[in-house]
Amino acid sequence: MGQATDRVRAAVRDSRRRLRTYLIVAVQAGLAAALAWLVAREVLGNPDPTFAPAAAVGVIAAALNNRARRTVELVIGVVLGIVVGDLLILALGTGPWQTGVVVFLAISAAVLVRGPGALVTQAGGTAVLVATLTPVSPDLELPRTVNALVGGIVGLLVVLVLAPLNPLRTVRRVADPALDTFADELAASAAALAAGDAGAAERVLHRMRAAEGELDRIGEMVDAADEVVRLSPVRRRHRRALAAYRRGAEHMDRAFRNSRALVRRIGTALRDREPVPADLPVAVTHFGAAVRLLHREFLAAREPTAARARVLTAVRAAGAACRQEIGFSGTIVVSQLRTAANDLLRATGVPADEARRMVRRAAAGQPD
């Protein structure tokens, strides 16, 4: 019962976080749909502006990143669906089986031109609309195409000029809980190691596995924010801070995965009752603190010198532990910590060769 309650609470927390993160997408979609309808109907005088808001929403909702590319794919898909749909309905008429044939051939045409998933989906969806709207709205071929173009342009205007997401705020809403969880679980694993509690280490490992999706969303949000700062004139001032996140996201993900392997070995060492030098939990504690420091320095757009120093402190403590009485799994914990430390140094912008040199010297107890 307790585990079920924890899962429900975790799901509720995750839903709230996702709502806060993606609420701007809902706002953008609503605004884009309304503006696209107004432009198509009131400005251009199209009698049926259905495709304009549909295309506008498609630009925003099809993907959080690569919207410029998605817009081109979406408009091509709409035009392809319109052309195939109109030609076939002209030849076959309308009805349920004709609709099925139209959609089948529209999607087949999109696949033949090696279109990506968004183009294929849009071609099929547009063909459905063409097949169902044609009986009541004939002779709309050109307005439909114009509507698709209007919708795509309005969608881009909304996401880049009228209501662009705040890149740092958006990344922070995802990164704050994810990286805090990362740091907290490392601290919890250090406490389990110090207390000799194998069960606690196992619970930490389960929580880290469950948190993997949160880390994955950081990369997704960084990609979306990166496109905004590159293309939106009102968000370009955030380029420096976001560039640090973009460079560090991949290495941070690797550090998390190596840390999870580290925690798995902590559990093995405790279950096997291996000796645990006092420096080993200290090293894991320092590494968790380095994760938190790196996140704070990224957000402040500062050179992450404090995070680097704390990473090397963790490696020195791990090296000291390795020179004491330590078991097989404990040795692997030290090795995993060094690997994760290298990843974290890379996330701070240190080149690969320099990061390896720094880790080697720190592990040997030498000053950097």
TrEMBL record:
What is one GO cellular-component annotation here?
Answer: membrane
Q: Which residues cross the membrane?
A: 21-39, 51-67, 74-91, 118-136, 148-165
Q: Where in this chain does the record put each Integral membrane bound transporter domain?
A: 35-158
Membrane topology, as annotated, equals: Multi-pass membrane protein
Which cell locations does it reside in? Membrane
Q: Which UniProt keywords apply?
A: Membrane, Transmembrane, Transmembrane helix
What InterPro entries does this protein map onto?
Memb_transporter_dom (IPR049453)
Q: Which named protein is this?
A: Uncharacterized membrane protein YgaE, UPF0421/DUF939 family
Q: Which species is listed as the source?
A: Micromonospora auratinigra
Q: What is the lineage of its organism?
A: Bacteria, Bacillati, Actinomycetota, Actinomycetes, Micromonosporales
